[in-house]
Amino acid sequence: MEEKRSTAGGISNRQELEVRWGDCDAAGIVYYAKYFDLFTDGRVALLKKINIPYQSFFHNRNIVVVAVEATCRYRKSLFPEERYFLSTTLSRLSRTRMVFDYTITSAENELLVAEGRTVHAFVDSTGKPFDIKKRHPELWSQLQENYNKNI
User: Fold this and answer.
1) pLDDT: is 69 or 150 the higher one?
2) What is the mean pLDDT of residues 7-29?
3) Contact call for residues 41 and 93 (beta carbons, < 8 A)
4) Where are the extended beta strands (E) located within the chain?
5) For 59, phi and psi rounded to 5 degrees?
6) Distant-in-sequence, close-in-space partners of 135: CB < 8 Å, separation ≥ 6
7) What does the alpha-carbon distance between residue 61 and residue 25 come to, in Å, rounded to a whole number?
8) Who's near 22: CB < 8 A, 6+ residues apart?
9) 101-128: string of b/e by CB count within 10 Å (b at 16+)?
């Protein structure tokens, strides 16, 4: 994994991966819904890279990070054993939300395969959104500090 600063703001992480056979549909291409699994993998890897591992930082503290929006634009098909780059950017951080942008490109020729965005809100165990700075000021400080030092 390679960490880099994004020119669009935020912090980015780039991973080179290979298409697994189990991610493909009967047509022999990556199944469209699998891209959201890839986005999740990219998001978790990025948070871990900036010292905010999802499990211990959010989950173990009963902070649920829910997706409130998810989009993907498909540009080119990926096939089994094809190598690709997954770039993930934490493009916006607020006291109630995080926004991640994703780009998948072919490792062979850097052609755009897919691009997406997910928006996540901080909610409690009852599903009620909250301001992380008010409810968990120490976590907000850590989150903001890690985000700010990497942009």
Assistant:
1) 69
2) 88
3) no
4) 2-5, 11-18, 64-74, 83-93, 97-106, 112-123
5) -60, -45
6) 124
7) 37
8) none
9) bbbbbeeeeeeebbbbbbebbbbeeeee
CA 43, chain centre distance (Å):
2
Q: How far is CA 24 from the centre of its chain?
A: 21
Which token pair is 94?
């607020």
**Residue 50: predicted pLDDT:** 86
Taking Cα atoms as reference points, which of 39, 21, 17 lies closest to residue 30?
21
Residue 142: both structure tokens together? 């850590």
One-letter identity of residue 11: I
Closest CA to 116 of 22, 35, 20: 35
Neighbouring residues of 9: CB distance < 8 A, sequence distance ≥ 6: 91, 92, 151
Q: What is the pLDDT of residues 31-72, one digit of tens each?
A: 999 999 999 999 999 999 888 899 999 989 999 999 999 999
Length of the chain: 151
CA 120 to chain CA centroid, Å, is 10
User: Can you give the pLDDT at residue 150?
Assistant: 67
3 state SS of 111 = coil
